[in-house]
Structure formats: structure tokens, C-alpha cells
Amino acid sequence: MYAPWHPLLEWWFGSAESPTDVVKAKGALWFGKKKSQDSDARERFAVQVEHALAGGLSEWAESPQGWLALVLLLDQLPRMIYRDTPKAFAGDQRAQALVEHGLKLGRDQHLLPIQRSFIYLVLEHSEHLEMQDQAVAHFTELLHEQSATDHEVFADQLDYAKKHQRVIARFSRFPHRNQILGRTSTAEERVFLKAPGSRF
Questions:
Q1: Is 65 helix (H, G, I), strand (E, B) or coil?
Q2: What are the extents of the domains in the chain?
Q3: N or C: which end of the chain has fewer CB within 10 A?
Q4: Segment 118-166, tens digit of pLDDT
């Protein structure tokens, strides 16, 4: 049976088998910040994203793969389709709730390691320190489960999780979102934002 979330997962993860090969093939899509990729995401999935943001597609979350796809529609895709606008973060709250519920059910354990990383990334996107702590814990566990062949991929993910955690521990929010969300930056945040790597 061809599930409705298959096109999204195929587009996002591709056909490579090892985590290292998936990152080589898809890393530029995930973190490239290219207008052409944002446009491609919009053309392919804008309708589903809007449906998800409106509270729809709940039935997807009844299976691990559908749960993953719905989380991508709420967390990753808005950051591409609505980049640099408040709507880029419009799905975060629902994504976080879906992730927390799914983790309690152990749904992440039915996903491939590289797929699990996008579940834990939702926690990393949160401006709540408790979720940041959870993200670091999950990425730490994920790294420890991997073979030496894929160690670098998951070590990098854990490193970024720790960087996000430190920012939230310091500011209780991500300063690089302030301008987009109409928030006033503090003097300390303005100094921080001038430093390399402060905007992820």
C-alpha cells in the first residue's frame, strides 16, 4: 500500500542506505538554504504543510513513518517554505507535542537512525531548556548506538544539539529569531549575534 507520506520521505531522505551516504546526498537540501530548494519544497508540499499547520493529517501519526512525515511537515518544511517569516515557526508547538507523545510510545525506535535525528531535532528547535536537555540526551544515545563508520555524522548532530542547548541556557530563546518574530534583542544578544555561528 502506497501511503500518502511516501513522496515526502523519499524526497527528504532519498534512496541511500547508510546514514553517511544519506547525508552526502541530502545534506545540502536539509541545511543549504537555497531559494531553488525552498521553491521546490513549496511546489511539492505546500498544500500538505498548510493542512498540517491547520491541525490536519492527525491520522498520519498513527504509524512511525507517518508520524515522522507529519513532524517534517510541521518542523522542517515551514522553515523552507516560509523562510525568514514568523510562519517558519508556526508548526513548532504542534510538532513538539507530537514528538513528545510519540517518544512516550517508542515510535522513534521503529525509525532508521538518520530518520530519528529529525525527530530529536524538533526538541532542539524548542526555546525551552527542558526540551533542549532531552535533545542532547537523545542525540547522545543515538551516537552511542552507531558503528564507527557513521560516527562522524551523529557526532556532528550531537555537537549542534549542545550548541543549541547552550544558547537556550544562556538566553532562554534563540536571539537570531528576534528580528523575524518582532522581538527586541537585549544588548547582550546583539553582541552575541555578531559572533560567527550565532545564527545556526
A1: helix
A2: 6-193
A3: N
A4: 999 999 999 999 999 999 999 999 999 999 999 999 999 999 999 999 9
**Which grid coordinates are listed for 127?**
526555546
DSSP 73-105: HHHTHHHHHTTTSGGGGTTHHHHHHHHHHHHHT
Look at residues 103, 142, 95 and name the one whose alpha carbon lies nearest to residue 122.
Answer: 95
Residue 56, C-alpha cell as written in the block = 490536519
* In contact, 44 and 12? CB cutoff 8 Å: no
Cβ within 8 Å of residue 98, ≥6 positions away = 61, 67, 70, 71, 74
* CATH class held by domain 6-193: mainly alpha
pLDDT of residue 197: 82
Task: Provide mean pLDDT across the span 15-20.
Answer: 93
Distance of CA 8 to the CA centre of its chain: 14
- DSSP alpha helices (H): ranges in the chain? 6-13, 19-31, 35-53, 64-75, 77-81, 92-104, 113-124, 129-144, 151-171, 178-181, 187-193
- State the Cα–Cα distance between residues 176 and 194, nearest whole angstrom: 10
State CA 104 to chain mean position distance.
19
